[in-house]
């Protein structure tokens, strides 16, 4: 291939890259403007409300997963007999 031909394809490739970058830049500016407008309007991210039962279950699971098998068995037995609140209290005591 001659140097002149190769240079022409390089110029074409550079122009395509420049066009793509301009398009990307314009898109990012529009996106930033939209985010700024939403923030100015006081729109906040909608958070899903977690039920108290689900929160308790998560707390219980988070505490019990770090315990040894023997301690887990104690906590599970207490949960079956006295409930989740007591099991969480015991798991907090056992993890220390």
What's the quick description here?
The protein has 96 residues and is an all-alpha fold. It contains four helices and no strands.
Describe this structure in words.
The chain is mainly α and 96 residues long. It has 2 domains: 1-47; 52-95, no CATH class. The protein has helices at 3-40, 52-64, 69-82, 84-95. The radius of gyration is 30 Å and the shape is elongated. The chain starts with a helix and ends with a helix.
| Mean model confidence by pLDDT | 86
Order of helices and strands: HHHH
Task: Compute the number of structural domains.
Answer: 2
Number of strands: 0
> Could you give a short account of the major beta sheet?
none
Helix/strand-derived category reads mainly alpha
Number of helices: 4
Low-confidence stretches: none
Distance linking N and C termini: 74 Å
Q: What would the principal axes of the Cα set say about the shape?
A: elongated
Q: What is the percentage of strand-forming residues?
A: under 5%
- Cα-atom radius of gyration: 30 Å
Fraction in helix: over 70%
